[in-house]
Design a protein that fits this description.
Blueprint lengths: L1 H10 L13 E3 L5 E3 L4 E3 L1 H13 L5 E4 H6 L7 E9 L2 E9 L3
Parallel strand pairs: 1-4
Antiparallel strand pairs: 2-3, 4-6, 5-6
């Protein structure tokens, strides 16, 4: 995710004359179910990651679900901010990777 954000930031790809291209990335960690008949993957963490990346995150954000954050082995190598958001009446705790220099 960090490499993608840095590559997009330095690419200078423009959406239009006034705005550069950017990414909002949501990352989850957990089991998923593949439904061949629907040709897709499904699961709670996938849904949460999608919610973070599409609905909560802004341009250049990297957001992790609570499970994704808990699964990290090198937490001290990066800086994180713990955040909370109420989504459809559910209190969601997630983490933002502070990656910009």
């Amino acid at each position: 995710a960090l490499a993608l954000q840095k590559a997009i930031l330095t690419s200078g790809i423009a959406l239009n004359e006034k705005e550069l291209y950017g990414l909002s990335i949501g990352i989850g960690y957990g089991q998923v179910l593949y439904a061949e008949s629907m040709e897709g993957y499904f699961g709670d963490e996938m849904n949460l990651a999608s919610k973070l990346g599409e609905d909560i995150g802004g341009r250049d954000d990297i957001l992790l679900t609570e499970a994704a954050y808990a699964s990290l082995q090198e937490v001290d190598a990066y800086s994180f901010q713990e955040l909370r958001e109420s989504v459809s009446g559910v209190d969601l705790k997630y983490y933002s990777v502070e990656w910009r220099a």
